[in-house]
Amino acid sequence: MEISTRTSSDIHIVAFAGNLDSTTSPEAQKKLDAVVAGARKVVLDFSELDYISSAGLRVLLGAAKQLRASGGTLRIFGLNQSVREVFEISGFSAILAVYPSEAEALGAM
Amino acid sequence: MRQEFRMSVGAHAGEVEKVSAVFARFAETYALPEAVRRSVNVALDELLANELSHGMAGRDAGSVTVEVELDQERVTVTITDDGPLFDPFRQAAPDTTLSVDERPIGGLGIYLVRELMDNVSYQRRDGQNVVVLVKQLVVG
Questions:
Q1: Å from A87 to nearest chain B CA?
Q2: pLDDT tens per residue across span A7-22
Q3: Which of B9, B17, B36, B42 to probe the A interface (max A CBs under 10 A)?
Q4: How many domains does chain A have?
Q5: Are the beta carbons of A21 and A54 closer than 8 angstroms?
Q6: pTM above the 0.90 mark?
Q7: Cα gap A7→A17, rounded to integer Å
């Protein structure tokens, strides 16, 4: 798992490459917590994410809750078919803002 | 044609990574469809993380075996451990309609396994927990 961050004006974009599972989620949580603590607008780039398990979903839910509490926004784009399936089964596609592309995720933020 | 591998797993959470890596290589070698590989990877992560952190808690000499079989039609994963009786599928499904604020963190893993696999089963056999997962290669 590789996690990189970049910014586009006041938007923090966090890109994940590899798997978000029980092995990688502690580090992902640490990195995402650090970003979320200092940002209002956060976009997660999943275009290089291979698969996500419930341990990864927990990390996302934690970040979403934190941002909601601070009045921030969380958006996600670039889900492959498998990640999308996990989002649908878990109901996450209904509670997190998922966009087809980076341009759409960053638009009107 | 039938391919398979079998591996023993130590009873601690760090071992999940090893199994994921071996399965990913197996999937690549036999050109498993990506969607099938990813679903099985998720299921392995859910069950092994669950088992190694709870089922084997406090025991350092437990034995867990993962077996993967591939034939023309399906992938079959069998996870066997000698821990205390534990049926992972005897668990109520989580409420997936709750909002971000209402949602408890956790409780989704086993539900994902059920939904991603075509068939799941649990058996207590000869003092062992035996979990079998089946994923068809072709949707049909």
A1: 10
A2: 999 999 999 999 999 9
A3: B42
A4: 1
A5: no
A6: yes
A7: 17
